[in-house]
Amino acid sequence: MAITALILFIAFLALVAGARTWIQVRRTGDTGDRREAARRDPVQRRIDGLAAAGALALGVVSPVAALAGLPPVVESSPVEVGGLVLALLGTAATFAAQLAMGDSWRAGVDPGERTTLVTSGPFGVVRNPILTAVLITCTGLTLMVPTVVGLAGLAAAVVANQLLVRLVEEPYLRRTHGEDYLRYAAAVGRFVPGVGRLR
């Protein structure tokens, strides 16, 4: 299952980074990549570093370590197969949520930019469906190769996503969209329907 996890991780990156960027360029002439602006913000830069470390740990280091003989935390074919299903569903859901953002899709937050507030489709169910789906993918990859390295990577990814939303994205959306965002955030959960609504 380790080789399958590696292949799936690479496919995930190709789809949600490569293909989504290509679609954005075709639609708008712009890549949507705002990571350069994000790197100027020390908070965003540290969060991105934590997220990257977590993703590499669970998507690359854990499978490679398993192939080299690192034992799993639990040996269970149903757990591994369940992980594969979750990883596939999470990958598809991530890409679908990215497409639902339309021209507003961005990688990274540029504090000086204003995009349309998207509240329909999967964004009408949770405010951060892309990150929810990414965490489903990460959970699936971790279950496919359940090593201590993968579990640590998953923990880093969860923490990074929480910090990104709470310290970067939500303050940006409040400043940019004001009352419209506050009304939306009061009605729709952060990562899970009904949970994490702002008061």
TrEMBL record:
Signal peptide segment: none
Ranges annotated as spanning the membrane: 49-69, 81-101, 130-159
Organism superkingdom: Bacteria
Family matches, as Pfam families: PEMT
Keyword Thylakoid: no
InterPro entries: Phopholipid_MeTrfase
Keywords, alphabetical: Membrane, Transmembrane, Transmembrane helix
Keyword Transmembrane: yes
Location in the cell: Endomembrane system
Membrane topology field: Multi-pass membrane protein
Protein name: Isoprenylcysteine carboxylmethyltransferase family protein
Annotated organism of origin: Streptosporangium fragile
Taxon lineage: Bacteria, Bacillati, Actinomycetota, Actinomycetes, Streptosporangiales
